[in-house]
Known about the structure:
two-stranded parallel sheet, alpha/beta, Helicase, Ruva Protein, domain 3
Amino acid sequence: MVDIIELNEKIQIESSFVELINTEMHKSIIGQKNMIERLVIGLLANGHILLEGVPGLAKTQAINSLAKAIDAKFSRIQFTPDLLPADLIGTMIYSPQEEKFLVKKGPIFSNFVLADEINRAPAKVQSALLEAMQERQITIGDKTYMLDEPFLVLATQNPIEQEGTYTLPEAQLDRFMMKVVITYPKKEEEKIILRQQISAFSQKIEPVVKVDQILHAREVVKQVYLDEKIENYITDIVFATRFPDQYKLDKLKQYINYGASPRATINLALAARAYAFIKRRGYVIPEDVRAICLDVMRHRIGLTYEAEADNIKTEEIINEIINSVDVP
């Protein structure tokens, strides 16, 4: 039996550092609470994050700020159509002095990897990134190197520009725990952004959390209680994307080409636990699952031509499922 009261007290203490990260990030990021929250969830749940939004919404800056707030190695890779796998993972270089090939490691060997405009790189670069994202390892020549923990790919993409871009393959999209869509700031927030940018003073982000604290917090997140009723709720949501007719959602069947994969089920549970942790709770409630459901699911459901013709978005389908599936 799990002692919920004792677990709650432990989570209250262990999750205190989350507020330190938020405080540091808000020195350079105004508003965008949802984006910052999702980045921290990815950090705690060991999941990669894809940020999508028009230019100028501080996607890159948010990731940069998170890396600065944590005392860890950070790499920024600008994805371009002429990028090669070797530019990402490294290559073998011949040393005349030693008369042998030596490994030159690439920027992927970091704790935080910012893949800026990830959809600008061709398939061969994406395939090199796949191994790192899934297996947390890199193969150069005949040797395989394990990546340091934590290892997080934080990618950005611009949805409005199509020239010189490549649609990410479904297999790679599925490896992102969450796809977070960033919207414009509110009017009052934009005024603060304006004042901050024209001010003569700028606040420097300081490292407030160590890597060891993050790794320890991940172990604590695994202890967050997930009741069997919540497990059933999560699987029902995922199965409703595959077999909508079994959940009295017959009208959605014509719009769904393929449903969410088992990774969606796993990531919903992991993200819900991390969400409960940052809310300083030792147990998951249905509202936690509903809160992160859109971000975990939106890139895992394939739409049919009928959906495109009727201008049906993935978010509408997910909301319909959430509102129809029985809540425990």
